[in-house]
Amino acid sequence: MITYMVCKNGYYEVPEYCSKAWVRVTNPTQEETQFLIEHFQVPESFLNDIEDTEERPRVEYEDGWRMIIMRLPYKSEETENSLFTTVPLGVLTNGDTLISVSHKRLEMMDDFIVYSRRKVFEEKSNTDLILHLLVSAAVWYMKYLKIINLEIKDAENQLQRSIRNEELLELMRLERTLVYFMTSLRGNEILIQKLKILFKQKRIKHDNDLLEDVEIEMQQARTMVNVYSDVLAGMMDAFAAVISNNVNGIMKRLTSISIVLMFPTLIASYFGMNVETESHIWTFEFFIVIAASVFISIVGVYFFRKKQWL
User: Fold this and answer.
1) Helix (H) / strand (E) containing 139
2) Beta strands at 22-26 and 2-7: parallel, antiparallel or unpaired
3) Rounded to whole angstroms, how far apart are CA atoms 272 and 168?
4) For residues 84 and 174, is the Cβ–Cβ distance under 8 A?
5) Closest CA to 292 of 273, 274, 266, 254
């Protein structure tokens, strides 16, 4: 889908392309991709790179176009693999033309447009719009991290009641999500440093305060990821120790029960061939064997309970 956005006290959609319009492309079809190539002369290689879900953040140039790829947080539709993931957003600029291309519909982009209207944005340059998108990306990373933190606490409460495979698998999915976030945030931070060098070398006008906000928000998001990763790693280690301790406790109880049952079995095996008189088994010797077996079993149970082995 291709929409044209113009900044007039916030970004609003217009029916046709005009000068200084932001061309927002979301999950483009083959026909829309071809339209971008033919109408705007966008390099096809750039569009192919953006389509790659594993593309890293970077800046590239080709045929007078500059491509900036950043990685943004995305609520995954495949919840069995991970709760959240990251996807690339490509921003293509050529003079007054700015085109953003994403192959997923991002909550962040819709929220950014609403935010721009609420804050009554004045006309923004292409550079400042890119920086605003990076700030918004950092904010949404932190929003999703708060949700992940709630999921971690919920899984912890479930595991305290009963350690099951479902809760452990949920923690593994959350851990995978944090790895995605950490990798993408590091890539975005490297991208920001490259943009700072680019602005200085090309003497590109930009809002210094906004650039500083981008760095601060990205660092804060990365710090949150580090904290939650450490918490989750510690929790996984703790529950691994709990599971190991539970297994040891079960094996200890089973061993104790086996030893307790071994006493009457040993006595019965020893006297079994010698207690029968003629054809009668209900003899005085038989009751002695039974009493001895019960007595030794009781002594064994008492001993194991005293040692807290049973």
Assistant:
1) helix 126-161
2) antiparallel
3) 51
4) no
5) 266
Residue 195's Cβ-side half-sphere holds a number of Cα atoms within 13 Å equal to 29
Choice among 237-241, 271-275, 304-308 with the minimum mean pLDDT: 271-275
Classified as helix, coil or strand, 19 is coil
Sign of CA dihedral 34, 39, 45, 49: negative
**CB 35 within 8 Å of CB 44:** no
Are residues 153 and 145 in contact, defined by beta-carbon separation less than 8 angstroms? no
Among 114, 171, 172, 173, smallest CA distance to 140 is for 114
DSSP secondary structure of 268-282 = HHHHTTTS-BTTB--
pLDDT digits (tens, 9 = 90+) for 88-135: 888 888 877 888 888 888 888 888 888 888 888 877 778 888 888 888
Residue 70, H or E segment = strand 65-75
Burial (Cβ within 10 Å: 0-12, 13-18, ≥19) of residue 135 = buried
Spatial separation of the C-alpha atoms in residues 211 and 271, rounded to whole Å: 91
| Token pair listed for 9 | 């006290």
pLDDT of residue 160: 66
> Could you tell me whether strands 22-26 and 11-14 are parallel, antiparallel, or unpaired per DSSP bridges?
unpaired
| CA pseudo-torsion sign 238, 181, 145, 73 | negative
HSE-up of residue 177 (Cα within 13 Å, Cβ side): 30
Q: E strand or H helix at 295, and its extent?
A: helix 284-306
Tokens of 45: 């290689």
pLDDT tens by residue, 19-56:
778 888 888 888 888 888 888 888 888 888 888 888 88
Give the tokens for residue 89: 């957003």
Tell me the CB-side half-sphere exposure of residue 163, using CA atoms within 13 A: 12
